[in-house]
Each structure stands twice: as structure tokens, then as C-alpha cells.
Design goal:
Layout (H helix, E strand, L loop, with lengths): L1 H4 L3 H36 L1
């Protein structure tokens, strides 16, 4: 499992990088959704 590869520094780097990509894509999706709602409301009113 992941714990076995955890001894390798490269494995740690890969795991951190994968988490960063995951979070970045999540935050971007969330920001886009927020921007969409924020953009729609002023234009409609």
C-alpha cells in the first residue's frame, strides 16, 4: 500500500503533488461556480 512507498522521498513528493493538483482543481471548480453566480446576479438585476 501507500505506507510501504512512504519511505521513499520521491513517493512523498508525488503524493503531495497529487494532493496539490486535486485541491487546485477543486478550488478552481468552486471559484468558477462562485464567479458564475456572482456574474449572473448583477447582470440580471
Amino acid at each position: 500500500g501507500p505506507n510501504h512507498a512512504g519511505n521513499s522521498p520521491q513517493a512523498v513528493v508525488d503524493e503531495v503533488r497529487r494532493l496539490q493538483v486535486k485541491m487546485a482543481s477543486f478550488e478552481r471548480e468552486r471559484a468558477m461556480q462562485n464567479a458564475d453566480s456572482d456574474d449572473e446576479n448583477p447582470i440580471e438585476s
